[in-house]
Each structure stands twice: as structure tokens, then as C-alpha cells.
Design goal:
mainly alpha, MetI-like fold, 2 domains, two-stranded antiparallel sheet, 2 strands, 1% strand
Length: 273
Amino acid sequence: MIVSLGRFIGKHLVLSLGLLVLLFLYLPNAIVALMSFNDASQSRNLYSFQSFTWNNWLNPCEPMGMCEAVGTSIQIGLLATLGATAIGTLAAFGLVRHRFEGRATLNLVLFLPMATPEIVMGSSLLALFVSAGLAGQLGFWTILVAHIMFCLSFVVVTVKSRLAGLDSNLEQAAMDLYANEWQTFWRVTFPLVFPGILGAALLSFSLSFDDFIITNLNSGQTVTFPMFVWGAAQRGVPMQVNVIGTMMLLLALTVVIGGEIRSRRRAKQLAAR
């Protein structure tokens, strides 16, 4: 009985601690969602709730320039995600599947952006653009290049970890069944690696959309959403900022929950066969 009681407490203690950690992590998001219904034109104190209103959701683009900044961040985020995911996936396959001279050095170079402080990387990229004669052309494209550069490392690491856990016997079995290399890749390798690629793409987009320091150093006159929020904070943050934050949270939850539901349905279908 004592052993059973200990197991019961241990089981529920771990569950309780896990729930507390999740509550701690999502509490700021809950506050942002609550403040999106705050009836205040702007406030330097984001935690001061005046009264409930739907106006912020009905007029999300009321602060001048905010929706344009959000659109710019989304465009840069999508393009940076495509570029970093494509290059990073190819680099990960090359590093995992092939042995070549300089492989260890390339691994180190790819890890450096993750370990380098953002202010150092941002200023280094700015120095690169200036030395290339692009000092007067800082803007959308320089931000895009900068975002691809720092997202690349995260893609390589994520896809490499997926490839490292891939069972090579599955590919060999496909070739034993007379599949050529192209068919084996698209019908066996790619579906198995795709969750890692998708995770790397989602991580890249979130990092790009959220970045401020590197973007601020290489933006010129282009304004992204984090830069708009930073500028607005000097005089009072409009409540519509919380609406955009809540939308991004709901979008992320939809993608994660939708992916989980889809994977469970596929598992059930395979089990039924």
C-alpha cells in the first residue's frame, strides 16, 4: 500500500509540476490576449486594464503603419524561411550523408551564428553590407539576407538531428524492392525527414518574425513589426499590438494542433490496415 501511495504521489507530482511549468510559460500569452480587449487607445503600462471592448479586434490596423509593418515582417519571414530551409536542408543532408575534407570546420562555422550574440552578428552583417557598397541600400533585401543567415544554423541543426535518427535499413529495403535512388528519396527518405524540415521551417519563421536587434541594424528605412512596437513604446503601445500577438499565438496553436490531429489519424489508418 505504501508503495502504491508513493507511485500515485509521484505520478501526479510530475503531472502537477508539468502543468505548472506550462501555466508559467503561457501566462504572458494569456495576458497579451486579455489586453487585446482593453479599452485604451494606448498605454505605457501594458498591464493596466481599463474596460472590455471589441474595438481593437474590429480595427486592428487603426495605428498608422502597423499593418504595413506586420505585412513586411510576414513577407520577410516567409522568404527567409524558404531560403534558410532549402539551403539548410541540403547542407544537413551533405553533412550527415557524406564525408569530405573540412566537414568538421563547416560544422563549427554553421554553429557559430547560434552562439554569437545578436548585436555582434547584426553589426558584422552591417559592416559586410557597408564594405560591399550597400550602405545607401539598406532595407528589405538586406534584412532578408541577414535573416537567412541566422536562421540557417537552426535549420541545419534541426534537420541533422532528424537525419541522425533515421533508420538506413528502410532505404535499403526500398532499394531491395527495386526502387531507384530518386524513388527511394521521395517515397521513403523525404516523408521520414519531413517533420524535421517542417519544424525547422516553423522555427525559422518565428525567429525571423520576432527578430529586432539584427533587423534594426540592417533595416535602413524599412520598418518591421518588432521595430514598430519598439518605436511605439516610446509614446505608448497601442492595444492593437496585442491583437497581432494573439493572432500569431492562435495561428501557431492551430498549426501544432492540426499537425497532431493529422498524425494521429494517419497512425489510426495505418493501424487499421
